[in-house]
Amino acid sequence: MSVAGGVPRAVERAVVHRCDALQIFAKNANQWKGRPLPSDEVRQFRSAVESAGLKAVVSHASYLINLATTDAALRAQSRDAMGDELDRAEALGLLGAVLHPGAYTSGSPAEGLRLVASNLLDLVEARPAGHTMVLLECTAGQGSALGARFEELAEIIRLMEGHPRVGVCLDTCHLLAAGYDLASAHGYADTFTQFGRTVGFDRLKVFHVNDSKKPLGSRVDRHEHIGDGHLGLEAFRRLVNDPRFAHLPMLLETPKGEGKPTGPIGVDPLDARNLETLRALVVHP
Question: Largest CB tally within 10 Å, which of 33, 98, 191, 275?
Answer without folding.
Answer: 98
